[in-house]
Amino acid sequence: MPEEFYRIKRLPPYVFAEVNALKARARAEGRDVIDLGMGNPDGATPRHIVDKLVEAVQNPKSHGYSVSRGILGLRRACAAYYGRRFGVELDPDAEIIVTLGSKEGFANLAQAITAPGDIVLAPNPCYPIHAFGFIMAGASVRHIPIGPGCDFLAELKKAVQESTPAPLAVVLNFPANPTAETADLDFYGELVAFCRRYGIFVLSDLAYAEIYFEEKPPPSILEIPGARAIAVEFSSLSKTYSMAGWRIGFAVGNRRLIAALARVKSYLDYGAFTPIQVAATAALNGPQECIAEIRERYRARRDVLIDGLRQAGWIVPAPPATMFAWAPIPQEYRELGSLAFSKLLLERANVAVSPGVGFGEHGEGFVRIALVENRQRLRQATRNIKAFLSGRNASSLGENRVQALLS
């Protein structure tokens, strides 16, 4: 019998597990840890969505198997959303499928379209499923550097020209997790033209479309004429409506890719619980003021965090979108690396963040800070960090413990 299974062998150790273990230990010791690591929305789902769930679940007819592609009402609501938000008309029957969040959709599409040895291009750093969904499916992933100072399109073109065999697909994520970078229609237009020329599918993750802080909202790649010939786009209600635990999202676009995902899903699941789909329909069709309220909540938190870190002597660029700040490690700690610095921040400041290397080797030198605590807690976090960076609490951690922590 094999000592380790094939797909498990292709997955590296989970970097975040080390920080999570330290976090659990600190809490067991009674320490007040401010957790800015996982991007888990802390706000309540808007009341009218919850009320619709309660109403739907009272109907016994909704308790049976649902529809793998998603109920028609929800697919129509997705089409209506794309129409009013992006000016894109979609066919609910052939160009939309409901997913159990965008993560499941990515993983199952990878299973649907990938053959062993295929090459897929993915940004680095990136949300782990963007690369590892395809690695688990047997593909070889070529990483495209992204982040401050990187020309993603130039790197993409270089990778395509140097790849043998030709790449099957490229993964995009704008607004980006973890870097918070955004893209405009000019970027998408050039990318679509290039990928159509070389016959490359484009898989776009638009999960943070509504969490933005600039005047112009993030666009959809499907706004580009001809994009649907090669592109599919994933989105989610998790961040837009604070519905992360509901696990509901959708994929839209290229009919061939949607059909492939639908066929795989038909073997794997019966879709999300029908009352959740009914409530998601109410979210997309109902009052939309809640989206602006959630966006403004994150904007206020962002401003508190960035200003507090500046006062602590840690200059971090203000993210233009998402619920994350992509923070360069202070120069004097950079040689430690992002994992060791994250551990120190937890031990000395009681603040948990995500090490950048957990999102790929090009994430080294950064940590991701999530805006998932209220402004009061964020102020406390920046005060703790200021004390740590100024060395005022250095004496509380013995040298032996520091060495043990970093070993």
Give the SSE map.
Elements: H1 6-9, H2 15-28, E1 34-35, H3 47-57, H4 72-86, E2 96-99, H5 101-113, E3 119-124, H6 128-136, E4 140-145, H7 152-162, E5 169-173, H8 185-198, E6 201-205, E7 231-236, E8 249-253, H9 255-268, H10 274-285, H11 289-311, E9 324-328, H12 338-349, E10 351-352, E11 354-355, E12 366-370, H13 375-390, H14 399-406
Parallel strand pairs: 1-10, 3-4, 3-5, 5-6, 6-7
Antiparallel strand pairs: 2-8, 7-8, 9-12, 11-12
Folded structure, characterized:
The chain is α/β, with parallel strands linked by helices. The protein has two domains: 6-44 and 290-406, Aspartate Aminotransferase, domain 1; 47-285, Type I PLP-dependent aspartate aminotransferase-like (Major domain) (Aspartate Aminotransferase, domain 2, 3-Layer(aba) Sandwich), CATH 3.40.640.10. The chain is 43% helix and 13% strand. It contains 14 helices and twelve strands. The strands form three sheets. The chain has a seven-stranded mixed β-sheet with strand order 2-8-7-6-5-3-4, sandwiched between helices. Strands 9-12-11 form a three-stranded antiparallel β-sheet. Strands 1-10 form a two-stranded parallel ribbon. α3 (47-57) packs antiparallel against α10 (274-285). It is globular and about 60 Å long. Residues 393-402 have low confidence and may be disordered.
